[in-house]
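Following up on my earlier message about zinc ion. Here are the inputs again, as you asked, copied directly from the submission form:
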Amino acid sequence: MSYVILDLEWNSAYSHSNHCFINEIIEFGAVKTDDDFRITDTFDALIKPKISKKLTGRVKKLTKLTNEKLREDGDTFLNVTREFTEFLGDSVMMTWGTTDLFTLMENYRYYKHDRHIPFLSRYCDAQEYCEKAMGRYDEGNQIGLGACAELLGVTFSEEEQHRADSDAALSLKCILKFTDSFSIYPFVRQADCQEFYDRLLFKNYFITDLHSPVVDRSQMKFRCDKCGDTTRRVKRWRLHNKGFVSDFYCKSCGRKFSGKVSFKQKYDEVKVNKRIFEISEKEKSDKKTDAQPQNQ
Ligand SMILES: [Zn+2]
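Thanks, got it. Here's what our run produced:
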């Protein structure tokens, strides 16, 4: 198996025909490796912008690219993707996080009126791999490439960052920190199918309706965190911060506590999160008046 780690640079461009901003790709940079992640080839190509011929100040500053440089050295998006397709061959494509995939889809939709990425057949998210290898994977708080490199003690100069080829090489340096001890194979996914896109585009959400069929009622019981016995719910469920909260009473030891349970719908599972916490002082005093046990 060989790998191609791809990084893109893009410019925020206003499309008058589509009446919206598009992240117009201006550079493809990639490194190709063998099965042991030794570099065997590199790819770097600039794209002559079509949607907006002017780079934003931010992009100019970040990438050090100029309008003149792209005009002189850039090729069209479709020519560059054709060359990249050849370069990729049957390698597994990797990017740092899925943002580059979304940007590719956006550009394909603009140029081909179809957002599928034609050269993508097997894919691996380098960010997910590194975060899981580090044991700090958190969907809601993903770690940038530069920050990850710093955490891992990978040296790079600020100058080198934010150009496609050097960012791809930096991703590789991070990946290499783990490949000896943490298998990458489980992270390689088939990507030439609708399921890949469905999964990519799926937005997780919290279930806020207690009567939803995906709510597992057995998860709404709490055991006492002091003695381990079953408890009785003494309040109505209320929705708070995307979870259901109620108070519980343990007859065996007299402990009272609040329990919170949330159900997060993901693409192929519902993730349940349960937490026990102390009843606030204010609520305790309220409780004196309505502490009657209630049935579900
Ligand atoms: Zn107890």
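One observation from looking it over: Confidence is low (pLDDT under 50) at residues 289-296. Hope that helps, and feel free to reply on this thread.
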